[in-house]
Amino acid sequence: MLWGYFYFPQLQLDILQQVQSCDQPLVIVDGHSNHVVQLNELAIAQGIKKQMGLATAASLYHQLQVIPYHETTEQQALIHIVESLYDLVADIAVDEVNGVFIRFGNMLKLYKGLDGLKQSLLARLADINLCFSYASAYSPIAAKVLAKSSLNQFYTEEEQLNVELERLAITQVFESTKDQEQLARLGIKRLAQLNQISFGELSKRFSHSFLSYFLQLQGKQPLAITFYQPKPRFAQEIELLYEISTIDILLKPLAGLLKRLASFLVLRGLACQMLTLRCRYRSSDIVCWDIRSAEFCDNADKWHQLVSLQLEKVQLKEPVVSIGLFCEQLTLKVVTPQVLFGQRQSQLTQLELMSLLQAKLGIDKVKRPTFCSEHRPELANQMSTTLTESSAASAEQLIANMRPSYLLATPQPLTCSIDVIHGPERIETGWWQHSVIRDYFIARNGQGQWCWVYREPNQQWFIHGYFG
Amino acid sequence: MFVQIIEQLKTKALIWQGYQAEQITESCSSSYPVLDCKLNGGFPKQGVIEIRSKNGIGELRLILPYLQQRGSEGLVIFIAPPSVISAESLSLSGLNLEEVWVLDASDEESLWCAEQCLKSGCCTSVVLWHQCFEIHHIRRLTLACEQGAASLIIFRANDSHALSLPVRLTLTLVAHPYGLQAQIDRRRAGAPTPPFVVDMASVWPELSLSSLPENVVSINEFKLRAV
């Protein structure tokens, strides 16, 4: 079975540079060994090399920007890569930290040979814009070894692959220092030398782990690989290159995250109504915002607009060091038909407009008037905040009485003089909770306003609305 | 000198020329014959309409038939009303409540909301309660109206010192026993009119004094009787 391997030597660095451009020498340093593990072009120009100690690197360029190596960031990025390749190849798996296994064997029929598959994979990876190298082989470990040596070819002929493998130094094939030492002691410098020794001889001299690795390299022993299964939800987090304390600047890295969300959604034909944006402050406090859309949306620009509207009023308490975007509830995207030859080409749908307004004003500020069968006017007229909910009572149930168009939120004591024109209309109800006995009158005040007033049994007069 | 002044007034859309009268957009009947006659057919279907009026004298009743007709084509949105807009009264006036939204917006937000709603294209009429406008606000709102083929009705207090705005139509309303006394202060491609009375007695007999019922008494007398 033919296998492929993609090796990403500087994943964390690439991701940092995708989100924010960097114009200074920058190195990523492993916290345990204090060695430089990844570095950008500018740092290379300063003479800094991989595996160099931090002190040496810093002495070469004193304003060097140093970022600690973060394994989980790379793992997340790998998962993201695997997710984006998943629709091209079915059997794909994440290798420990910076590689991806792909089982080509099952896919060759679909793509009519390796060339088609290679082209679509490379085109997809070019979109992601990462530094990588690749190779193929008849065992996953051999593919990995060849990819790490930057072969950058997919060969299918076994002889060719063996030639390429034997061309490698033995230290490139066996990575553990213990194995390397042992091989050096035996004077083995090439893989061909090792192949000439019989397995029985080898088992006398080498440890069990070495032997199983060697067998896996030759494809004689299978490697346990758990293939990737797509997750039903979206969750991504990025570490910021520098601390951000204003929303305007925060929106820029966020746009990158939203684009990833959009590609995640579009690939799956999904859409979502709510996102959770999680920001981690410098003091490790976490703040979350829920961003809602009235319609199911999979468009990065629309989400960006909603996020910026909702966040424009927000003040960040402290500088933010990382942002994450989470989306739990996803549904299948439904495309609403648009009027093709209508007179008015509508730019937004009602739901889009509602999302915009809700993002700006707040969810509870966009309302639809509804009414229910109830005699008390303050209860009969309600405001619903959802679009879908229809009136509890239909228009036919409405008592055709005069009702004012402006209803005061709380009745005000009547202070001015009025002329009563119509009435009374007695409303007596609610004995089970808030008992109401009111005689309503339509009246006109000195300024010509038509008022809706009522009198309580204790002869107190209140004004409850105006007929606009 | 005069030419300059006239040019300035033209750019601010404060004067118009006779040939522009042909460009009148479609109008929509207000269902009050007097008003339709004075307005040459009714309220414009598109553009900014300013209504200077006190709240609660019948100004909403004047535009409700118009809103009801416009509401059949798209949303009608009320922005920052002075108090709760009663669903019952809207429904009684024939408005489809599914197509009515009410926005609680602060002064600064309400103009933004109005612009977004107008240019969205899914909304046919916006009713806005807002006092302070500047000329560039009206410009933007007019553009938004054109973009979304919508109309904006602005309710303002009847303040004679207020700035004259380059709107399509300005109406001043005063309470009148028979309904309303209206006056067209300015309109595009048309002359202002002297005050005239819009009789609402036939549509809203309960809310007009044209035929005083026998049983009407003043509140003071009523209170005396009650005691």
Outline the structure in words.
The complex is a heterodimer of chains A (about 475) and B (about 230). Chain A is α+β, with helices and mostly antiparallel strands and about 475 residues long. Helix content of chain A is about 35%, strand content about 30%. Chain A has 17 helices and 19 strands. In chain A, helix 14 runs antiparallel to helix 15 and helix 15 runs parallel beside helix 16. Chain A is elongated. By secondary structure, chain B is of the alpha/beta class. Chain B has a single domain, classed as P-loop containing nucleotide triphosphate hydrolases (Rossmann fold, 3-Layer(aba) Sandwich), CATH 3.40.50. Chain B contains seven helices and twelve strands. In chain B, the strands form two sheets. Chain B has an eight-stranded mixed beta sheet, sandwiched between helices. In chain B, strands 1-2 form a two-stranded antiparallel ribbon. In chain B, helix 6 links the parallel strand 7 and strand 8. In chain B, helix 5 packs parallel to helix 6. The longest helix of chain B is centred in the middle third of the chain and has 14 residues. The radius of gyration of chain B is 19 Å and the shape is globular. Chains A and B meet through helix 16, strand 13, strand 14, strand 15 and strand 16 of A and helix 3, strand 5, helix 4, strand 6 and helix 5 of B. Strand 16 of chain A pairs antiparallel with strand 12 of chain B, so a sheet runs across the interface. Chain A: InterPro entries: DNA/RNA_pol_sf, SulA_CellDiv_inhibitor, UmuC. Chain A: One of its GO terms (biological process) is DNA repair. Chain A: Keywords: DNA damage. Chain A: This is DNA polymerase Y family protein. Chain A: It comes from Thalassotalea algicola.
Largest sheet of chain A: 5 strands, antiparallel
Rg result of chain B:
19 Å
CATH architecture of chain B: 3-Layer(aba) Sandwich
**What is the tally of beta strands of chain A?**
19
Runs of chain A in which pLDDT lies below 50 for 5 or more consecutive residues are none
At the fourth level of CATH, the homologous superfamily of chain B is P-loop containing nucleotide triphosphate hydrolases
End-to-end Cα distance of chain B: 72 Å
